[in-house]
Amino acid sequence: MKKVVxxxxxxxxxxxxxxxxxxTLVENELKDLEVKVDxxxxxxxxAEFSLEGEDEEVSANLLASRYGTPTKKADPxxxxxxxxxxxxxDAFIVNIGVPVxxxxxxxKALGSGKPKQVASRFGLIPHLPVExxxxxxxxxxxxxxxxxxxxxxxxxxxxxxxxxxxxAATRSEIxxxxxxxxxxxxxxxxxxxGLLEHAVVCRETTDGPGIVAAIGPRLKSEMGxxxxxxx
Length: 231
Prior knowledge:
Number of helices: 7
Oligomer: single chain
């Protein structure tokens, strides 16, 4: 048996439900491999996958590569996968296994404003997967977002359509909420950002905040909106 702890955090009010959702999603991802999947929650609230079968080694490597694993020590100059944890008055807090800070100075690449204003402008919410480079690792660990990460967010902002960013929901749950509220024709696609984090790409004539108002009551999720500048 192989075990792999991923950077997927277990969050929300119903931890058991989320663990079951993650198990189903990973089983689907590994459906072409000979492996049995179980999921548990570590004391730090990470998703730990237990893999047993002929392809357990390959499966473990695949999950670690795709979703990252928590680190206990951050090295300057190294790039890490993590997730947005919180937005304070003077920094973004990113969890890579340990909390690191992307301070206001490093956020200037995303335009002016306080961290919470920057987060709102780009539709950023907790638990979105991100990529950071460690700048300093003394008493306080400081980081910056990689060019790849910044380019992704600027791509959203400069687009001709709005995006609705959603956490704590599967693709099928989001599709169901959109269909039930009659907005199926108002979106292009649902982009996958993480296992339970997605971005709904609206059509040019669709208002992102309107989609939030419609589907919000049907999903137990946090949502952010990016207003496309080219609309």
